[in-house]
Amino acid sequence: MSFKNYDSPLYYRAAREAARIERAGDYRQAAAVWTKASRFSRNEANQQWSENRADFCLMQIAREKLKAAFADDLRALIPHRKAAGSKGEKGVRHRLRVYIPQARRS
């Protein structure tokens, strides 16, 4: 039996914990635990894997910040819509929460 991928029990415990935290969405804590798992690892492949996961978690934090900023900018650009049936224009169509007036008929 080959023990090519055999590693420290501390690594496996930390890696399981990091994966659980990452699935929960706490990427900052997951990155810290993946880094700890990398330090515990005796296997170069597992060290590389856990370092890559830590980098992924840090990049995911940046992606979520960018996504939130983009969503805020997009909300600022979209005009507020009027509720259907309220006083004002009749036959207002709504799509993607954007006010789109109907074409005028001649």
Could you walk me through the main structural features you see in this protein, from its secondary elements to its overall organization?
The chain has helices at 9-24, 27-40, 44-77, and strands spanning 93-95, 98-100. The chain is rod-shaped. The model has no long low-confidence stretch (mean pLDDT 80). It is built from three helices and two strands. Strands 1-2 form a two-stranded antiparallel ribbon. The chain has a domain at 9-78. Helices cover 60% and strands 6% of the residues. The N and C termini lie far apart (83 Å). By secondary structure, the protein is mainly alpha-helical.
Short description:
About 60% of the residues lie in helices and about 5% in strands. It is mostly helical.
Please describe the topology of this protein.
Layout: H1 9-24, H2 27-40, H3 44-77, E1 93-95, E2 98-100
Antiparallel strand pairs: 1-2
List keywords for this structure.
mainly alpha, 106 residues, two-stranded antiparallel ribbon, ANR_neg_reg, 2 strands, Tscrpt_act_PerC/SfV_Orf40, rod-shaped
Unreliable spans are none
Number of H- or I-type helical stretches? 3
Instruction: State the separation between the terminal residues, measured CA to CA.
Output: 83 Å
Helix content: 55-70%
Radius of gyration: 25 Å
Tally of extended strands?
A: 2
**Helical/strand content category:** mainly alpha
Average pLDDT reading:
80
Strand order within the widest beta sheet: 1-2
In one word, what is the shape?
Answer: rod-shaped
Order of helices and strands: HHHEE
**Mind summarizing the main beta sheet?**
2 strands, antiparallel
DSSP strand content: 5-15%
